[in-house]
Amino acid sequence: MAEDHGNTARQEQSTPATGPDPVRTSPRRHIRLSSHPGGTAKPVAIEWGAADPKLRGPVLGSVRDGSRRNVIGAHAGSYSLYRALAVAAGRLDPVHVPDLTDTSPAEPIGPYPQWSEPDRIVSLDPWGHMVSEVFAEDIAGGLDIRPTIAVTKAHLTVPEVKGAIEAGRLAPDGEVLTETGDVRVTKMAIEPVWYLPGIAERFGIGEPELRRALFEESGGMYTELVTRPDVKVFLPPVGGATVYGFGDVAAPARSGAPVTCRVHDECNGSDVFGSDICTCRPYLMHGIEECVAAAQANGTGFVVYNRKEGRALGEVTKFLVYNARKRQPGGDRAETYFERTECVAGVQDMRFQELMPDVLHWLGIRRIARFVSMSDMKRDSIEAQGIAVECQVPIPPELVPDDAQVEITAKRAAGYYSEDGAPSTGELRERAGRSLTD
Ligand SMILES: [Zn+2]
């Protein structure tokens, strides 16, 4: 059956007793199964990696555009499900089209040669912040083309930066760092846009295997993954990235200005709440300090913040692992740090750094002078994508919290970069953390 004529989901709703008036201006529609579009699908052509955006074509993910859509999934990643709730609750008009007046980037990014170099970018749309400009005619013609990237400006007020000023490590310059200790940044929000053939190639697997796993492991959420091999672009329901740029964000691409960069994977417990079992916030803040110093020295700093909580295992798994680490016989210790994660999650890590360098290509970066990270996985994947890493900057030892010594020792043993080198067998065995009750 190509179409299901049931429309009970919207018929049965009644007006909520309280709250704003429900929005329901669109006519009820039949449910059109996108997996079996019959002869009605006329997706807008998309030629991934083409240098001319008009030839490349827009990423058209709005469900409003029905047969013209050229992607699987919907805009806004995981937040698309909140949009669905808003529609279901009658609070959002399902045919609402964003008014993009005055939303254009606060700082131009690109276009850069990397945007059309073969296989450079497979997990974001390099034109995602420029759609109002480069697809203006299509939008005027009625296509609901939405940005997948937004670029704005901000001031960061960070206690650690003020501490660095007090300690004499940083000094206000009135530009990057104001007299009151605020840091001026350009910040860029990026939603994932996956070109499935490119993602498959990056992992050395076949596209059918990738599509099947995405379909099955999401509980069959996106049938087009297996029924529409002609649709090559997927808007996955996962978190994206935010880039914080310090100094002239175009200088590396324009004139080869030296880049200082930290690629940070989200750790809400430490980054936001100051949990001391890991080094995440201290290292993030050290990265910001390094980026400020770089911008003050006529370089450019970038902190890339990826929404990959708990090594992309999620926070529930992460907290289960904390308990397993601290309750195991002998208590929390470095020698079993990765093993406990693997027991719970089945793997040590699901961040897949293979896709991470795409954002660096989008920024036009060819080399990183100072890479603020000890991770060999991150460094290797950046270099595998053709970006040189000249120097790795480890976290200063005095910034490592006591309870995070287990993590840092385990990582040194696993090959993470450290000026101290790998720990001895004795250090690995003896490095222990707090118990759950301490
Ligand atoms: Zn952490």
Which structural class best describes the helix and strand composition?
A: alpha/beta
Mean pLDDT: 91
Shape category: globular
What percentage of the residues does DSSP assign to strands (E)? 5-15%
Rg is: 24 Å
Biggest sheet, spatial arrangement of strands: 4-5-8-10-9-12
Could you give the count of β-strands?
13
The helix content, as a percent range, equals 25-40%
Number of helices: 19
Give the oligomeric state of the chains in this entry, treating copies of one chain as homo and distinct chains as hetero. single chain
Summarize the biggest pleated sheet: 6 strands, mixed
Q: pLDDT below 50 for ≥5 consecutive residues: which ranges?
A: 1-20
Question: Could you explain how this protein is built, in words?
Answer:
It is a single chain. This protein is of the alpha/beta class and 438 residues long. It has 19 helices and 13 strands. The strands form 4 sheets. Strands 4-5-8-10-9-12 form a 6-stranded mixed β-sheet. α7 (196-203) crosses α8 and α14 crosses α15. The longest helix has 17 residues, at 280-296. 39% of the residues are buried. Residues 1-20 have low confidence and may be disordered. Residues 267, 270, 278, 280 line the site of zinc ion (ZN). Zinc ion (ZN) is lined by residues 267, 270, 278, 280.
Write a brief structural summary:
The chain is α/β, with parallel strands linked by helices and 438 residues long. It has 19 helices and 13 strands. The strands form 4 sheets. The protein has a 6-stranded mixed β-sheet. Strands 3-7-6 form a 3-stranded mixed β-sheet.
Helices and strands in order:
Elements: E1 3-4, H1 8-11, E2 31-32, H2 53-56, E3 71-73, H3 80-88, H4 131-134, H5 136-140, E4 149-156, H6 159-166, E5 183-190, E6 194-195, H7 196-203, H8 207-217, H9 224-227, E7 233-235, E8 241-246, H10 251-255, E9 259-265, H11 268-271, H12 280-296, E10 300-306, H13 309-312, H14 315-327, H15 337-345, H16 358-362, E11 367-368, E12 370-371, H17 376-384, E13 388-389, H18 405-413, H19 425-430
Parallel strand pairs: 3-7, 9-10, 9-12, 11-13
Antiparallel strand pairs: 1-2, 4-5, 5-8, 6-7, 8-10
Helix pairs in contact: 7-8, 14-15
The structure holds zinc ion (ZN).
Residues 267, 270, 278, 280 line the site of zinc ion.
